Amino acid sequence: MLDTITQNIKIDAQLCRHIADRHYGIGCDQVLIVEPPSDPTMDFNYRIFNADGKEVAQCGNGARCFGRYVYDHGLTDKKQLQIGTLSGKLMIDISDLNHIVVDMGAPIFTPKAIPLNLKAATKLDPEGRYKIRLLDNDREVSILSLGNPHCVISVPATSEAAVNEVGIALQEHPAFPKGVNVSFVQVLARNHIKCRVYERGVGETFACGSAACAAVVAGVLQKELNMEVKVDMPGGAITVQWPTTASVLLSGPTTSVFNGEFYLSSFED
Fold it and tell me: Is 63 helix (H, G, I), strand (E, B) or coil?
């Protein structure tokens, strides 16, 4: 988390790559930026840069961290926040700091908006199921957007999923012109799943909120899951709710793990 409200920092891709590099510091999957609102109806702007320095539109777990950060650092005393992002307005409820809730908005299935190249994917049903050619095999997957493109793949066991091999292959796949976050999902019960995620611009990550939401949406539409599901990820558990006629809600705890300082001059080439 970087605060550009109380300090003057110029954010660019090079700076974000340096900060994210785990070899030269604490490192991270995403650099999250707190900015003054560009829209007077919003409380803040929220920007997200992946570890490769590319800016993306959504990060659900990051939004929960964002809400906790601005409250803990005295940037707001509100408990209901409206945040401006590249993908539109985001709502964060920090009434319970041990259980922060993010309104992720409604899932998007329109191919152009995902974006999805229909020349490289065969639609199987109206609920976002497609067949794609992947590593010389035909694979049935669910494809949707929650501000970022997501591909959801069912697996018998997440421990045996070829996360890196399949994740890397899908970044180069013609169906996904802007890359894709890939969820590997094992259904344990109608209200409980395991999920591993290959995140575009990052690689396999310990947790991804929007990917967890995409996994639950896909499972609800395929009638495999209830409308409220516990999602176990390598970094911990979160809860996803989707009543199908409303927004997807992501909720869970947040924990501060590191505070530090850096000098901008140290990132100059």
Answer: helix
Cα 151 to Cα 132: distance, rounded to the nearest angstrom: 11
Q: Are 18 and 88 in contact (CB under 8 A)?
A: no
Three-state DSSP at 176 gives: coil
Non-local (6+) Cβ contacts of 57 within 8 A are 48, 85, 86, 87, 147, 148
CB 169 within 8 A of CB 135: yes
What pLDDT sits at residue 24?
84
Q: Is the C-alpha dihedral spanning 239, 140, 135, 137 positive or negative?
A: positive
Per-residue pLDDT tens over the stretch 223-251: 999 999 999 999 999 999 998 778 999 99
pLDDT digits (tens, 9 = 90+) for 175-197: 999 999 999 999 999 999 999 99
Alpha helices (H) along 79-208: 163-171
Lookup: tokens for 33: 């930026």
Whether residue 150 has pLDDT greater than 70 = yes
Confidence of residue 148 (pLDDT cuts 50, 70, 90): very high
83/96 Cα distance (integer angstroms): 18
Active site residues: 59, 208
Question: CA-CA distance, 58 to 35, in Å (whole number)?
Answer: 15
Greatest C-alpha distance within the chain: 54
Ranges of beta strands (E only) in 110-173 are 122-123, 129-134, 137-145, 149-154
> Helix or strand or coil: residue 123?
strand
- Taking the CB of residue 239, how many other CB atoms lie within 10 A of it? 17
Share of the chain above pLDDT 90, in %: 79
pTM: 0.88
SS3 call for 111: helix
